[in-house]
Amino acid sequence: MERAAQGADGGGGSNSSSRSSSRATSAGSSPSCSLAGRGVSSRSAVAGFGGGGSRSSPGSVAASPSGGGGRGREPALEGVLSKYTNLLQGWQNRYFVLDFEAGILQYFVNEQSKHQKPRGALSLSGAIVSLSDEAPHMLVVYSANGEMYKLRAADAREKQFWVTQLRACAKYHMETSSKMMNQVEGQQKNLVHAIESLPGSGPLTALDQDLLLLKATSAATLSCLGECLHLLQQSVQQVGQPSHKPGASENILGWHGPKSHSTEQLKNGTLGSLPPASANITWAILPNSAEDEQSLPPEPEPNSGPELVLSEDEKSDTEDKEETELGVMEDQRSIILHLISQLKLGMDLTKVVLPTFILEKRSLLEMYADFMAHPDLLLAITAGATPEERVICFVEYYLTAFHEGRKGALAKKPYNPIIGETFHCSWEVPKDRVKPKRTAPHSPAGHEQPTAEDPSKSYKLRFVAEQVSHHPPISCFYCECKEKRLCVNTHVWTKSKFMGMSVGVSMIGEGVLRLLEHGEEYVFTLPSAYARSILTIPWVELGGKVSISCAKTGYSATVIFHTKPFYGGKVHRVTAEVKHNPTNTIVCKAHGEWNGTLEFTYNSGETRVIDTTTLPVYPKKIRPLEKQGPMESRNLWQEVTRYLRLGDIDAATEQKRRLEEKQRVEERKRENLNTPWQPKYFIQEGDGWVYFNPLWKSH
Fold first, then answer.
1. What is the rounded CA–CA span in Å between residue 387 and residue 381?
2. Alpha helix (H) residue ranges in 514-646
3. H or E segment and range at residue 376
4. Torsion, Cα of 157, 161, 164, 166 (10° steps)
5. Residue (of 640, 689, 644, 289) closest to 475 by Cα position
6. Under the cellular component aspect of Gene Ontology, which terms does the record hold (predicted)?
7. Contacts of 571 (CB under 8 A, 6+ apart)
């Protein structure tokens, strides 16, 4: 914006420092914006600047804020200041007009052109005005929208006069915005109270769909406006600190202004049905019922060490993977609407238990395993003849992994893993299928499920995942293929956030793919996920920039998952670029949809199209429930899954509550005994977690 303004300012004007002529003239009408009301009297303005070329007319001063029955005539401050344009043209004199009523600083080429369209304009609401020693008598105006004006006055007194007036104008308009927000907050509370006061039965109730929608959207809109105001207020508080860069915590959304009374009611509990409108809906965050603690089954010994998982017990997975879409049942929609109306923008959802009917019938740990549904592409990375081929193979695998792992774009949430929960599985991949994608034969259409009749003719890929921490919720997974000397070690911390009409989940952490045969390590990150349109039929999209890099070879890749623009645009878009950093050469580019068709273009000019919907899916091999330990995902969640399949949401909710309460009870016991949790399969190393017996240490 600054460059655009400077570009428009390119012609004419003197390069010398200005002899500013500033005066207040009658223009506008805000009762509290007069020069006198702002702490600089018109008399002092005239006395101070009369001899130096700056003038202020006493007759133009507006009526005081408390005087009269109508709005007084308001002055605008105007005069010549020198404005920094660019390196070539430097400082140029421009005629500035400060409009108190509108809260806008405008500038023109000269005084004669001030009745024409201004060369530039800066909104002062939330603006920062600071002094600078970069040049004599210099001040800098930082607008809340990111624009910046570098200005110079004729002398120190005139500089201070402009700074005082600009700051006063910015403060006035910020306070006005705050008052308006307080009024809107009060009106929204009245609206919520009016809706919640409606009877529980009759033609119009508190659970009317349109009223719930109004309640939810008004809360989300207010939160968004409040957050914008909060960011502006933060900027104003940092006057004189233009170099301040917000820390990570400051970038987290969340309005710190007045809170809606219903926000404080968020407690955890059962969501099978809605109570009457007169009752508070609660989701208890940390219940501590004594009778619940007594009725819970004992926790398995957490520190018993790694268990031997016999692969000969594993059988091909026949679990039903179909999920019913959300948004089709009105009673479910009512619960979602009521929940949204009580959440706050930017609110951390870690401790908010969401309604059971939005859950997938699998744990998050199993979802990570489902990202490995194309193990032939993973193992094919080792078959690459050069470092360039191998990094491209990894990018091809990475981009095709999310479709099957996310079960398309269906917006349901997997179970939050219980601390100590584990998931084990494996895949058998026919050896003749493991080829780099660029040379592999074209796969037939449809999701075929390849199998290897003879184990000696297949590679074995083993997978183990474990929930190693509850707060924060950290999941780890490790997979290896001993025959191909390949392994992947990953730790992920999921952080959910309410974003108005959507929910965002950040995947914090990283993974490392190791190719032991080549001595290469590829460090990669994961994208964020967003559940959109949560008021209608929710859908999932991925978003954010992720990186893949190999320090040994110098190759890296940048992958961008594009979220859908507000207007128009395609969904599920992804682009990628693979670069050889020592030579700054781009060796591959890719674009398409992560759950559809991807097109790869190589530096040789060759292109290849991969349709993720027709790639062969290799079924997991997993032990039957009767041979699984009590903390293995499917065994642990089997009752919740069973009731979800039966459509008994109340029973599923109760089973889920028991599991989660059991986890809380055990956590309190460990805190009382000062006994930290000891995972079975992963060891903490620095900020990360590593499998206890990884392939690179055992070979």
1. 10
2. 633-636, 638-646
3. helix 375-379
4. -130
5. 689
6. cytoskeleton; cytosol; membrane
7. 409, 539, 541, 564, 593
Kindly provide the residue ranges of all beta strands, DSSP E only, lying in 143-258, ordered along the sequence: 148-152
- Strand bridging mode 528-532 / 520-524: unpaired
Cα distances (angstroms) measured from residue 572 to each of 496, 537, 554, 576 = 20, 17, 29, 13
- From the list 472, 420, 465, the residue with the least C-alpha distance to 677 is 420
Do residues 481 and 461 make contact, with C-beta atoms less than 8 angstroms apart?
A: yes
What is the arithmetic mean of pLDDT over 122-133? 87
Farthest CA pair distance, the chain = 100
Name the DSSP class of 55.
-
Helix (H, G, I), strand (E, B) or coil at 437: coil
Short-list 634, 633, 636, 623, CA closest to 299? 636
Rounded distance, CA 347 to CA 252, Å?
9
pLDDT of residue 297: 42
**What's the token pair of residue 394?**
């990894």
CB atoms inside a 10 Å sphere around CB 280: 10
Q: Which pLDDT band, with edges at 50, 70 and 90, does 459 fall under?
A: very high
pTM: 0.58
Predicted local distance difference test score (pLDDT) of residue 495: 84
Task: Tell me the CA distances in angstroms from 428 to 450, 455, 490, 553, one per residue in order.
Answer: 9, 8, 21, 30
CA distances from residue 596 to 10, 184, 571, 573, 630 in whole angstroms, order as listed? 48, 44, 10, 9, 38
What is the average pLDDT across 222-247?
54
Q: 157-195, pLDDT tens digit by residue?
A: 999 999 999 999 988 888 887 788 888 888 888 888 888
For residue 25, the model assigns a pLDDT of 46
d(CA 294, CA 297): 8
Per-residue pLDDT, 685: 92
What residues contact 688, with CB distance under 8 A and at least 6 apart?
Answer: 491, 509, 510
User: Which residue's structure tokens are 């004419």?
Assistant: 12
Contact 310, 230 (CB under 8 A): no
Structural domains in the chain, CATH included, are 77-172 (2.30.29.30), 316-349+359-435+457-613+638-691 (2.40.160.120)
State both tokens at 85. 């344009």
Q: 223 vs 634, which has greater pLDDT?
A: 634
Q: For residue 317, what pLDDT is reported? A: 77
Q: Tell the residue number behind the tokens 């004669």, with chain if given.
A: 112
**Contact of 389 with 440, CB cutoff 8 Å:** no
pLDDT at 6: 44
Query: Alpha carbon of 612 to those of 270, 437, 547: distances in Å?
Result: 39, 12, 21
Cα 673 to Cα 662: distance, rounded to the nearest angstrom: 17
Query: What span, in angstroms and rounded, lies between the C-alpha atoms of 444 and 394?
Result: 22
Burial class (CB in 10 A: 0-12, 13-18, 19+), 300: exposed
**235-281: per-residue pLDDT in tens?**
555 544 444 333 333 332 233 333 333 333 323 333 333 333 332 32
| Burial of 697 (C-beta count, 10 Å sphere; 0-12/13-18/19+) | exposed
pLDDT of residue 22: 53
pLDDT at 649: 85
Indicate the range of 98-107, 163-172, 288-297, 437-446 predicted with least confidence.
288-297
What is the DSSP secondary-structure string of 455-479?
A: GGGEEEEEEEEEEEETTTTEEEEEE
